[in-house]
Amino acid sequence: MEAEGSLCRALYDFVPEPGEQGLAFEAGDWVRVLQTAEDGWWEGEKDGGVRGWFPATYVELVDESQIENQYHNVDDSEPIRSPSPGQPQEPLPPGWQVFMSPDGRPYYVNRQTSETSWDAPLMPGSPVTTPTTPTKKQGYDVIETDGGQKTPEKTPEPEDKILQSPKKVVNNSTPSSSAKLSKDTPKTESTPNIKSPDTKTTDENNVVNHLTFPPSSSASDQKLLKPGEYSYCDYFWADKGNLPGFHVLLEKQLQGKQMTKEMAEYFTERAAAEEAYARTLTRLSQNLLASQEEGTLGDTWSEVKKSIAQEAEVHHRFSVKVQDDIVKPLATFRETFKKDMKKTEQHIADHRKQIQQKYQGINKAKAALAERQKELDQKLQKHKTEDELKKARRKSTAAGDNLLKSVEQYNISQSKWFEEMVSSTLELERLEGERVQMVKGQLNKYISLRKEVDKERGKVLGSIEDKIGDISPDKDRERFVKAHGTGQVRPVDYKLA
């Protein structure tokens, strides 16, 4: 039977990878084949106009000419949907016929447009019903609507062990499919956009972005590697949006390095301000204002100007020490840090890439196993010879062994990534502690230098205080008289001889 234009039925669930223009469906869905490709992928359209590509091994073609032989036409006296008591069955729109599948599900076909649907089409102008809480009945979810009608809906079967039918196929298993999706399939409103993160949850696994986490029911059983320490090796296993958890940590470390550099720039400006202040004090100490003051007051004034010169020297030394002892260590701290950490990040990214490839290998092995099981089932149904059945069983067994091997390789790759993550996050934790302690030490050193400045300035001020205590107007008079006195003999009255 030619596939293009034919109707096919899904054998397994299929969920496209993020970024693919794939067609998602569940087992039992009906898909119209639009075109086929040599790589084993078909383009199809579901009810509602949703189009996309999917692996051909996930579906089986159905001969529409034999539909009426496979499904018995439902008589008007045997309605599929059970109306509420006293309400007549709603008629179908023109061109639509309803059939009953062997498992009891109603299937609607439009003979004029070849449109198919598991949901009953509504007459033009009919109110849209809203489903409420589903109830179980003989393996189906019976959805009761506002109008009292009930539509049987197939209950999804649980996913069992890893050898069960595959759930999805990823890009690398079909290299040419990505190009075909981008070139041959125009993006329309009916083409779904696949969004990340890629998540698949079963009873045993919770796969997110190709990493396997325990299901939520058993996640609490895990013990922290370093309990009570809030260690980085315990809290950054999952991705944050499109960023791996390790990248989040690395960004914090790089930001810390930048903050250290900015601290160095800040202290550079602090040293520059101190140096400018020292130069200003030096110029002030050389000023000649009030330099002709004499006596003890003049001596004290000279001491004030001398102390300003000494204070200028104190601030100059402080500026030099800040530059040498604080700025340089901060500015040169881990000059190769970013380069080294980028290498570590690349190693972890390589491990993630390996995990992704191995996970894709699992899905490819699942698809191959499903194909071999399908071939074996077909041979069993057609009563092939024992040799043909043995050959089919060997292929199926080999496919199962290959799947087990793929799972083992995936687990090995994830284990290597785990080890790299633990060692790298602990290294980042150590480096961050080292940086914080280094900055702490520099701040303490700054405080010590500042205290030295205050101590030396105190000595200078002490000498001024001593001089101020020596100021005495009496001594000033004595010194002035001795230096500039014009004579101590006083004039007397004039007498006539």
From TrEMBL:
Keywords in alphabetical order: Coiled coil, SH3 domain
Entry keyword Cell membrane: no
Gene3D superfamilies, alphabetized: 2.20.70.10, Arfaptin homology (AH) domain/BAR domain, SH3 Domains
Protein origin, superkingdom: Eukaryota
PANTHER family in alphabetical order: GROWTH ARREST-SPECIFIC PROTEIN 7, PROLINE-SERINE-THREONINE PHOSPHATASE INTERACTING PROTEIN 1
Record's protein name: Growth arrest-specific protein 7-like
Comp. bias regions, Pro residues: 85-94
